[in-house]
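Summary of Year 1 activities. Much of the first year was spent building the evaluation harness for sequence design. The harness presents a backbone, in tokenized form, and records the residue chosen at every position. We chose the following record to illustrate the format because it has been used consistently in internal testing since the harness was completed.
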């Protein structure tokens, strides 16, 4: 890591994001399409807070799509 980047895991895959990145930035680089839920370090984050949720180095982000069927 440098002073200008963060190393995070998105669905267990490593990503490098700029310092000051938010959950919204992580969602954008992941390419996931709605609907999905997001958690950072196992804590659910409401969709309306993605842009305000600042990420830290080594955060673990889970983006979970619902599974349909029965």
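For this record, the design step produced the sequence shown next.
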């Amino acid at each position: 890591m440098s002073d200008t980047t963060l190393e995070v895991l998105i669905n267990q895959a490593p990503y490098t994001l700029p310092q000051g990145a938010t959950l919204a930035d992580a969602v954008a680089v992941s390419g996931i399409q709605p609907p999905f839920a997001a958690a950072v370090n196992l804590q659910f984050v409401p969709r309306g807070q993605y842009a305000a949720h600042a990420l830290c180095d080594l955060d673990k982000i889970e983006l979970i799509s619902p599974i349909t069927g029965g």
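Residues 23-30 form the longest helix (8 residues). Quantitative recovery figures across the full test set are reported in Table 2.
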